[in-house]
Amino acid sequence: GMIEDSVELMEQYAFSDEQLQGMTDQLQSLDRNDQRAYLEITKVGLEHLLGADETQAIDMTEQEAVLDTIDGLRNDRQVREVVFESRMGESQVSDGQRFYALKEPGESQRDQRVTIELLTTDAWLSRQSEGGPDSEMQSLKLAGQLDQMGADERDELVNSLNQLVKTNIPLAQLTADSSEQFESFINRTSTLAISNDVDALIAADAQVTPEQQEDFWQVAEMAGDQVDRFVETLRNNSPEMQQQIIDALAGEGAQLDTGQRTEEQTAERLEDLLDTFSADMADEDKSRYLTQNFRA
Are 41 and 88 within 8 A, CB to CB? Predict the structure, then answer.
């Protein structure tokens, strides 16, 4: 319960009086469900970023970046809502009231924990790569996308994303140059956060061959706010043509990474491809266009 969570937090983490007062003020302004989500985000989030020392409480006055990351999540209404709902199964509305299917107790706790871990990982990695006050916006958008999903679809997505984080070390203890190991994760979460049609994005991912899956997400991330057009372009083409489009744009991504192209050039070439393919063209004309304009 909430009291046990609070006691456990005090035992494992040494907060300053000011930090404790801030948490108390925030909790007092929330209703009961929000309070539970707030404490759970704090507990799981801190464990995920710092670990827990059984012998000695971790001094939180030296963990400003960690607390800022947790704060950005637990103070957001939509994040708390997703965390609360992650304990529940599918919902339905009857006579104007919303009812949730119940999960098994062990399943409900696990699903809540992995949802918090996902959002914490994303918020921390965004902060490490971008810094600044805007870096948490992506995680809040991601929470908004999860909030729109049915329980089964959401749980499946959360689990598949968490499987891409292959480390047992608390994230705040990782060195700065370890960001490459999270590239697959970041490509997906940043794209999911910005997409206006997550269902279409996930459906496109399911159509891609396993060999091209990482290329697909790399290109989707590179597409930025053009990601929905990119997905629509894939959907409107044959599987063979889809593979050629992904190959061509993945090649662009490689040239961007090595500095052979600027971000502006890459964006222009991506847009040109999407514009060209939106016209009614025969597949052989499309293939010719790709051959002439994109290095294999």
Answer: no
